[in-house]
Automatic annotation (TrEMBL):
Residues 8-147, 177-268, 275-381 form the Alpha-D-phosphohexomutase alpha/beta/alpha domain. It comes from Flavobacterium pallidum. Belongs to the phosphohexose mutase family. Its cofactor is Mg(2+). Pfam families: PGM_PMM_I (PF02878), PGM_PMM_II (PF02879), PGM_PMM_III (PF02880), PGM_PMM_IV (PF00408). The keyword Isomerase applies. Residues 402-457 form the Alpha-D-phosphohexomutase C-terminal domain. Keywords: Isomerase, Magnesium, Metal-binding, Phosphoprotein. One of its GO terms (molecular function) is phosphoglucosamine mutase activity. This is Phosphoglucosamine mutase. The gene is glmM.
Length: 467
């Protein structure tokens, strides 16, 4: 059982001892720290209503109602007004925060983690994840337990608003690059796996408004995930089979909080999470030429597609906050992460599967081709993901420095571990912040080459480490 405190929030497994797991005590403690941080940093004196406002939403996890009630009422106890979206998605809450002119937001979700996990994801007034510096301040406040709760006459108030999934969909469908009529004319049939969470509500809703025939699979938002909720090939055999059985044009899979998006081709094969962003970026760049950003562990295919459209591609450190920061710096028109996370600044700076679905279907309708044909039109790259477990006595930083020196003549980045770009393949080495592990990601034009590169690098690391 685990409790992980980081600058992006707090996540852990439900039950067990306070401080070791995500217990009610821990939920209250970190909600108190977040609320206190807002009170310390936002001046409300010029407002008619002097209170701060925070938007709250949750996914459909079994522990959701419990954690939700604790967090909401903790903020009320701090004198903060809460706009409660109830069952929602991460991108929906991100959209709601600026529309409500709120001071922040909290999403109660452990994203792709299994059902025993939950988390508090923390947003700023723009509806974006907090900066590392702000996250660190919240951890300090939590550690010190420096909370000052409101007296009875100044408690916060709760306003429920269950309209935001509809509002989110409206915002997406009103985007200039989303062509609802073209999608309606294509008469797509789509199988949706909502992993029995919020995606089971919002994904069919947006598809039906785009004139798509929907076949639902695991769309009952009861929190009982029917398979591992991370949208990887090995977890998605049911939808792959159902796409073929239903003679559907494609399958759509999201994770429990709807910020990761994967597609299944009409032949039951995975489109590839890495290629979700590639396909959407191809469409966006064809209409609005510009720059792109993904993280260092994402496919080189995005760079290739960006170059095709005469744009500039840059890679950030891993983590959504880092991707967004570099997107803003480079004025990127589209970006995201290779795990199926689409960030489209025209709407907001956050991974958003609903935006991704609408743009992908528009692209597919315009191309007038099968999903498998669209996938075949992109550069072929294959990844291998591995890790080496080391003893605590081994200096991981020294190993990474030795690998940097060994390949000094190659194109190297050290902003997030060590990324070595070869002519036709790359390797990214990252150390874990919590255990003596080096993660090794490789990509090459064939799976054999990716695996062989990984084995070679693993051997070299073991030689340097003397193991």
């Amino acid at each position: 059982m685990t409790l992980i405190k980081s600058i992006s929030g707090i996540r852990g497994t439900i039950g067990g001892k306070a401080g070791d797991n995500l217990t009610p005590v821990d939920a209250v403690k970190f909600a108190s720290a977040y609320g206190t941080f807002l009170k310390n940093n936002i001046d409300t004196s010029a407002r008619d209503n002097k209170k701060l406002v925070v938007v709250i939403g949750r996914d459909a996890r079994i522990s959701g109602p419990m954690i939700h009630n604790l967090v909401v009422n903790t903020l009320v106890g701090l004198g903060i007004d809460v706009i409660d979206l109830g069952l929602s998605t991460t991108p929906t809450v991100e959209v709601a925060v600026p529309l409500e002119e709120a001071d922040g937001g909290i999403i109660l979700t452990a994203s792709h983690n299994p059902k025993q996990w939950n988390a508090l994801k923390l947003l700023n007034a723009k509806g974006e994840f907090l900066s590392g510096a702000d996250g660190a301040k919240i951890l300090e406040i939590a550690e010190a337990e420096a909370f000052d709760f409101s007296d009875v006459d100044n408690l916060g108030e709760i306003t429920s608003n269950d309209a935001y999934m509809d509002i989110h969909i409206d915002e997406v469908l009103n985007l200039p690059l989303v062509d609802v009529e073209a999608v309606k004319a294509a008469k797509f049939k789509v199988v949706v796996d909502g992993v029995n969470s919020s995606g089971g509500i919002i994904v069919p809703m947006v598809l039906e408004q785009m004139g798509v025939e929907v076949v639902k699979l695991y769309c009952e938002p009861n929190g009982h995930f029917p398979h591992n909720p991370e949208p990887l090939k090995e977890h998605l055999t049911d939808i792959c089979e159902l796409v073929i059985k239903e003679k559907a044009d494609l399958g759509i899979v999201v994770d429990p909080d709807v910020d990761r998006l994967a597609f299944i081709s009409e032949d039951g094969e995975m489109f590839g999470e890495e290629y979700t962003l590639v396909a959407v970026a191809d469409y966006v760049l064809s209409k609005t030429p510009g720059n792109t950003v993904s993280n260092m562990s994402s496919s080189r295919a995005l760079r290739d597609v960006t170059n095709k459209h005469n744009g500039s591609y840059e890679a950030s450190a891993v983590g959504e906050v880092n991707v967004v920061e570099l997107m803003k710096k480079n004025n990127a028109v589209i970006g995201g992460e290779g795990n199926g996370g689409i960030i489209y600044p025209e709407l907001h700076y956050g991974r958003d599967s609903i935006v991704g679905i609408a743009l992908f279907l528009t692209h597919l309708a315009n191309k007038k081709m099968k999903v498998s044909e669209l996938r075949a039109s992109y550069p072929e790259y294959y990844m291998s993901k591995n890790k080496i477990e080391l003893t605590p006595q081994i200096d991981v930083d020294a190993i990474l420095e030795a690998m940097t020196n060994k390949y000094a003549d190659e194109n190297i980045s050290t902003i997030d571990g060590v990324k070595i770009d070869f002519a036709s393949e790359w390797v990214h080495l990252r150390k874990s912040n919590t255990e003596p592990i080096i993660r090794i990601y490789t990509e090459a034009p064939s799976q054999k080459q990716a695996d062989e590169l990984a084995l070679r690098i693993i051997g070299e690391i073991k030689e340097v480490a003397g193991i």
